[in-house]
Amino acid sequence: MKIQQETQLFQAVVDLPLGKIGVRTEAGKIAELCYLPPHFDAKAPQDAVAEIAVHQLRRYCDDADYVFDLPLCTVGTPFQQRVWDAIRSIPRGSVRTYGELASHLGSVPRAVGQACGANWFPVVIPCHRVTAATGLGGFSRSDDPNGYLLGIKRWLLAHEGSSEYAWQQTTLL
């Protein structure tokens, strides 16, 4: 019963090579994209905006150079939006550390990490391109005991052509 209730939160649940993503829409825009644990069942799009999102997510999985053009709700604080804009500027196949982004933004790594964690539109705002100075970092939560989120991050970085060596040899924006 709980899984069915959780699935009802989304207008679509798409099963992709990286894992499952829930699509929540509101007033003709994408309100949230959410990485979901493997136990979620796929759910066909329930509205036109969810259908567009599912189509674009699939296109991205077929082509890492695909550029998203989704109507996104405006969310986040001004600082979070600055961080997300900086993340969007990281080219495919590249990564930056939390510290590098923080330095670029005149902030601190922890604040950048919190803004990454507050990203309502993962993949579209590619927070997977931000890593810890010592490795992958991020994408870890207490409610992810099996590590599906880190698996998603690894898939996304590999899909975009990042190598493990490159993750540790980054330069500032």
TrEMBL record:
This is Methylated-DNA--[protein]-cysteine S-methyltransferase. GO terms for molecular function: methylated-DNA-[protein]-cysteine S-methyltransferase activity. It is an enzyme of class 2 (transferase). Gene3D superfamilies: Winged helix-like DNA-binding domain superfamily/Winged helix DNA-binding domain (1.10.10.10). InterPro entries: MethylDNA_cys_MeTrfase_DNA-bd, MethylDNA_cys_MeTrfase_DNAb, MGMT_N_sf, WH-like_DNA-bd_sf. Transmembrane segments: none annotated. It comes from the Bacteria. One of its GO terms (biological process) is methylation. CDD domains: ATase. It comes from Duganella fentianensis. NCBIfam families: ogt. Its EC number is 2.1.1.63. Keywords: DNA damage, Methyltransferase, Transferase. PANTHER family: METHYLATED-DNA--PROTEIN-CYSTEINE METHYLTRANSFERASE (PTHR10815). Signal peptide: none annotated. Residues 78-161 form the Methylated-DNA-[protein]-cysteine S-methyltransferase DNA binding domain.
